[in-house]
Design a protein that fits this description.
two-stranded parallel ribbon; 15% strand; alpha/beta; 14 helices; seven-stranded mixed beta sheet; binds pyridoxal-5'-phosphate; globular
Length: 355
């Protein structure tokens, strides 16, 4: 029997719980104040347009919908970016963030044999599975410092420096999951210096563009900084969170190459990997009140959809077993799953669990 998934397994357990007080803070997904799934108005509008136009159900090309690929690359880099103008980006529509990461992992396994990927400690739970399944060796770089509840910048830099030349460095473009802690612009400069010095290849996971600052452009500045330095890089994109399109599986893998010719060849190889894997992608036309005195200011400082509460595994289990509040065992809660009405209940559960 395979163990339940650390994130989606939480939703399965939540569905099976019959207690009326139950609250699911495990999965990162928008909820209404009534805690029902929330569909954005812009999505409803687009769906209506699609129905009116009578869109067909033809297969997409292996690389996906051309108009989507153009739009997604432009959203990431900015339409005027030289990498777009010079046609140096190979963009292939993937099966959302996960599928796009998996496609890139297969590409790395095939064309960079023996290269390792460095991932942050901690990171989104599925990264390790993705690289394990693609048989790409990985190790971790220091990221989170529990003493300061902040970034272990020195540790991060020295681990990236110590990695064998030509390693892939997996970076969260913005709104780091699960910590909600991002490098500052000055720190990004330093990170890109070290990556460039060591001939490493940056590999961005952009699952929260727009979530960190509210600006799509500002949230892409980390990626754009690396592209502006003339580096070759990988960027996986997901529209699950910023458009609330969890079920549609909309995303892309972008590879910035040194020339238009290299980009065309990289794209052809990505398609070659995608075809036997899944053929073609899906159609995309488309403050807790506190009675305990504990300092909760980190919730406001951390950005993105999640809060890394600092609850350990036992405390997280108490939250679920006693209070019917579902969260991942690393203490991460999705604030999008909370309603105003449930805040006080959650605060009581957390205070009880801390003791
Ligand atoms: N990357 C990160 C950091 C994530 O948090 C997630 C989802 O939670 C994903 C990628 C992939 O999500 P999806 O496959 O739904 O696009």
């Amino acid at each position: 029997m395979a163990p339940p998934d650390p994130i989606l397994g939480v939703s399965e357990a939540f569905r099976a719980d019959t207690d009326v007080k139950k609250l699911n803070l495990g999965v990162g997904a928008y909820r209404t104040e009534e805690l029902q799934p929330y569909v954005l108005d812009v999505v409803k509008k687009a769906e209506n347009l699609m129905l009116e136009r009578g869109e067909n159900k033809e297969y997409l090309a292996i690389e996906g919908l051309a108009a989507f690929n153009k739009a997604t690359a432009e959203l990431l880099f900015g339409a005027d970016n030289p990498v777009i103008k010079q046609q140096r980006v190979a963009t292939v529509q993937g099966l959302s963030g996960t599928g796009s990461l998996r496609l890139a992992a297969a590409f790395i396994e095939r064309y960079f044999p023996g290269a390792q990927v460095l991932i942050s400690s901690p990171t989104w739970g599925n990264h390790k599975n993705i690289f394990n399944d693609a048989r790409v060796p990985w190790s971790e770089y220091r990221y989170y410092d529990p003493k300061t509840v902040g970034l272990d910048f020195e540790g991060m830099i020295s681990d990236i420096k110590a990695a064998p030349e030509g390693s892939f460095i997996l970076l969260h473009g913005c709104a780091h999951n699960p910590t909600g802690i991002d490098p500052t612009p000055e720190q990004w400069e330093k990170i890109s210096d070290v990556i460039q010095e060591k001939n490493h290849i940056p590999f961005f996971d952009v699952a929260y563009q727009g979530f960190a600052s509210g600006s799509l452009d500002a949230d892409a500045s980390s990626v754009r900084l690396f592209a502006a330095r003339g580096m070759e890089l990988f960027i996986a994109q997901s529209y699950s969170k910023n458009l609330g399109l969890y079920a549609e599986r909309i995303g892309a893998i972008n590879v910035v190459c040194s020339s238009a010719d290299a980009a065309a060849r990289v794209k052809s190889q990505l398609k070659r990997i995608a075809r036997p894997m899944y053929s073609n992608p899906s159609c995309s036309r488309l403050s807790a009140k506190d009675k305990s005195g504990k300092d909760w200011s980190f919730i406001l400082k951390q950005i993105g959809m999640f809060s890394f509460t600092g609850l350990n595994k036992t405390q997280s289990e108490n939250m679920t077993n006693k209070w019917h509040v579902y969260l991942t065992k690393d203490g991460r809660i999705s604030l999008a799953g909370l309603s105003l009405a449930k805040c006080e209940y959650l605060a009581d559960a957390i205070i009880d669990s801390y003791h």
